[in-house]
Task: structure prediction
Amino acid sequence: MGIGISDSQVDFLVSHTLAKFHKRGEAQVVWDEYTFLFLDEVFTKDRMRVQSGKRIEWRYQFEGNGSFRHKQMVQARDQVNWAPNVVMSYAEWRRFDFYVSVVEDMMDQCNSEAEIVDYLKTEYKAALLDALPGLETRAVLTPDSADDTLNPHGLAYTLRGPTAGVQDYEGGFIGQTAYYQDGASTTTNYNLDRATYEKLRNFAGTHTGPNPLLLDLILAGRLRTNYKPPRDPTGKAGDLGKRGQHRMVLWQTAYEQWYQNLVTTRFSDGRNRDVAPQGIEGFGYLGSPTRGVPVLDNQPYNPVYDVDFKHWFPAVLNGKWMAKRAQRYVEQVDNMMLHPFHGTYNYMSDHPRAAGSCFTTYRAA
Result:
């Protein structure tokens, strides 16, 4: 052979060397979920790192100070108004952990360092196969109940559909009531009440399934939540609001399938049916990507979200996201070692109206 290897060595090469280069020992992970939108994109691009603190805190300013007027050249003021106009909101931290379990006897049975690496990768994948779906699923959901102190406040807690018994097919700022996983309802928004603070209510409406009326409803919400705050003409106030956006339309897989068929069927005779603007994840509406989200496939009342991730995002305690603790042996099992990982986070919205819209099918009272 012209590569410096004799014919008698080929069998040894294939059996003991190329197998390692081709990673034959690595297992292919088979997922139930076909995409991990929140972990791969939102946590990568939009998460906020909090340096320290026992909870996440942020503040709203809902009202001006009432001082503006048009006036005569010389005109006295009848009164001067002043009142505290900053309201604080906060979310408690949520914590998670998981572990990689390694059996030393399994490593002793490996024939080479490459096989040991393959074995360790397999155990890490087993841990992530359990942890990542748990994190991805809870990114959308409300807590299990009003007393739930374990699970985070997912997207449905901030972007709320119409209250049970309300039908609104044109949409409005009526997103007041959130529903926990046990079916109980609340108007509270962390520590504030949307029944009191109307400007915390997001745009919401009732849809009847995947049809052009749903697209028009999303448009109505986008036009009314596409906030572009003014620039500071005094040069003293600083930031008057975020101007950048990271928008997406999120819905169940069947709705995404319907939309892609709608987009690619441009003519009644079927011409250009196979011509799509972009790839499988590249379809868009109103300049934003549309994405089918697996966890929404089985949600009641078929929620559809038009989200701006610049105003709804995960907050992570600095250094406490996928952080590794010291490895330790399992008590009474002297050949098994655990590699623990943990994290501290929750979701928040600094501007629920600008965070987007939520549309659901009718929820009976």
About this structure: The mean pLDDT is 84. The longest strand covers residues 333-349.
